[in-house]
Protein: Glucose-6-phosphate isomerase
Amino acid sequence: MNAPVPSPTTLPAWQQLAQLAAAPQPHLRERLAQPGRAALQAAAEGTGIRIDFTRQAFDEAIWSALTTLAREAGVESQRDAMFAGQAINTSEQRAVLHVALRGTPCAKGNAAPWGTVIQGLVQSELNRVCEFADRVRAGDLKSSTGAAFTDVVNIGIGGSDLGPRMAADALAPLCSDSQTGLRVHFVSNPDAWAVYHTLRGLNPTTTLLIVASKTFTTQETMTNATTARRWLDDGGITGTAQSAHLVAITAAPRKSAAAGYPEAHTFTFWDWVGGRYSVWSALGLPLALAIGSTAFREFLAGGQAMDAHFRSAPLAQNLPVILAMSGVWNRNFLNCPTQLLACYPSRLVRFAPFVQQMDMESNGKRVRKDGQPCDSGTGPILWGGLGIDGQHAYFQLLHQGTHRVPVEFIGVDTEDTPLPLAAEHHRVVNLNLRAQSQALAVGRDEAATLQALIAEGRDPEQAAEFVSQRSFPGNVPNSVIWLDALTPHRLGALIALYEHKVFVQAAIWGINAYDQWGVELGKTMAKAMENG
Ligand SMILES: O=P(O)(O)OC[C@H]1O[C@H](O)[C@H](O)[C@@H](O)[C@@H]1O
Structure:
């Protein structure tokens, strides 16, 4: 029997927020001019991350009610239940312990909240992953022909692809010890072109194939794996020699063993790690191969630093809570169905698709944990990409379209690209980020537009004719997430920030963020069609 989960709409703070939302809302232009606005900023110590949420469409009274809602919904006790390893994934009766993969977020000597057994499993598999990655990178672990590996191909999809691929794109270019010449490639799509295009330039005698699948049954991944192994065969790497080229990462090691993947090259994780939360587990092996074990451990430590902040910071200063509750206000009280993620560092090119899976597969739910239908909106439609490119594409709709799209901007303070004019590039990028954040918030009304046109030398009568086309309503809620640098540690903290944001929103809505039954129907139908 599912324990009853109260609808958030019955909570006093929700009702208070509904009343606050029903009152006339000042324009963000006016809100920004109000005193005390600077209080809507917060930083997480030890993570290098701070959030400027001064451009969210609420004032201190609304913010206070939002934090009260988080308290009334039991965010803190639900958080503690997750860290204690309780089976909070109720539909599958599983704990949710990706946090355990990052290490213990408490003082040295204190036991991990999830217990020593899990701690031991995690440490020993992490050590295996790190050792393996370093041996391949150093050329100590040889291919079947005795050569060092030059290329790694990770075959996986969804959570077995998006995280490591995103992080490798973000970090490999600037990890100074990653100049080993080892190239890490990713194939997810089972369209033949994707795997052909990746393999055709590679030498099978120096290529390591990783097949990453939590279940080791995913049809797309198995189809690509079959072709890649056939490619090894065709390249003369056959029979037992092939073992040196094969790696499996899975929570179902019996299945990978049955498919011929050698035990010594099989890395495991557990059913209490959801696929979309698994970049910290053995599934991070391609990332460790791309950046080295030292940087990979820094990445984990960044996640752990955000865990420590999430567990200890007061709700009003707690970064995951800030992102989550801003989102709840926008989604449930301002009725904005979507959320844009605009990343300004180009190394974060795959961050939005990664968060898209994490958020939409987690909180795309329509019933609460007790099976009762949700009577409020749940997870938003999350979309986005690189902010600067977006400015020259879809930002027009944000400024003058008929949708109100809240935005989360992500920027970095420092730039270390080895280019003589890198500082100038960085200045241009951050200038644009700041300008967009402000322009979307304040807009430009018709009177100010008319003045601007006249100042440009336009005839006032002519200017008045097209003043409406040249005006901007603004009032678009947005926050800026600033990283002091885009290092492995900071990226780890950023990912954990989003994981906990998703957690907090699920806690508010009373839904289970850790199952994904919605993806099953299409799979089942494909199977039924296949079987005629
Ligand atoms: O890692 P696998 O078992 O191959 O699963 C890969 C992906 O496929 C599924 O459809 C799920 O929706 C994802 O959550 C998962 O990450």
